[in-house]
Design a protein that fits this description.
With 214 residues, this protein is mainly alpha-helical. The chain is built from 9 helices and 2 strands. The longest helix is centred in the C-terminal third of the chain and has 29 residues.
């Protein structure tokens, strides 16, 4: 069972249905699935959901801007696979009368509509990502070669990265000079209110700070 499936089942058990029609709809859907799905179809569903990342959690992280590159790639890849499998199964389930259940019929129609629009977007996004570097989070290429070259000018990106490195070296050199002037070898850059490269001086060393620094 997937992580998000576990949470849904727990929610169902903690907050059981109380409306008779809703209960009957769910029972009808379960009976249809249990009685008419064949082994091959069940294996296809199990296969696509096996080792499935926690899509619900990743989606939440994406929404709040806390996801990493690997998570975004895995989310797009798995959603694309799921939509493909379930959309393909729809016609098979209709032929088996599985979708006589109103609940399942609505669900698979919803998936079909998603496949017409969102699946195209997912596949477009996936085609932009270099899967090899997306999965290798330890390599620097995970950052600078995350996207396929046909979408971005990587030479220009590398030039910009070199310029950033050069500027960071200048900041480091400046920090060494600051340490000499303030006579404080532990001085480091700090960030305050998103303002980077600020210097915090110990009270005991304030006397060494040049007047034009304040």
């Amino acid at each position: 069972m997937t992580k998000f499936g576990e949470r849904m089942l727990k929610s169902w058990l903690q907050r059981p249905l109380i409306d008779k029609n809703d209960i009957n709809d769910r029972h009808e859907a379960i009976d249809s699935l249990m009685g008419k799905l064949n082994g091959l179809q069940i294996e296809r569903v199990k296969s696509v959901l096996k080792n499935c990342p926690d899509l619900e959690l990743i989606l939440s992280r994406i929404h709040y801007g806390r996801s990493n590159r690997k998570e975004v790639y895995l989310f797009l890849k798995k959603i694309s696979e799921i939509l493909n499998v379930f959309n393909t199964m729809r016609d098979e389930l209709i032929s088996l009368d599985v979708l006589n259940s109103a609940l399942l019929f609505d669900l698979f129609n919803y998936i079909k509509e998603l496949s017409k629009s969102d699946l195209v977007d997912f596949n477009d996004y996936l085609s932009m990502i270099n899967s090899q570097h997306a999965m290798d989070a330890k390599s620097n290429d995970h950052i600078i070669r995350y996207f396929n070259e046909k979408f971005y000018d990587y030479l220009e990106i590398e030039i910009e990265n070199e310029e950033i490195s050069r500027i960071e070296q200048l900041f480091d050199q400046e920090l060494q000079e600051i340490k000499k002037i303030t006579k404080d070898r532990d001085t480091q850059y700090i960030t305050v209110s998103n303002e980077p490269y600020l210097i915090q001086i110990r009270k005991s060393n304030v006397k060494h700070v040049p007047p034009d620094w304040v």
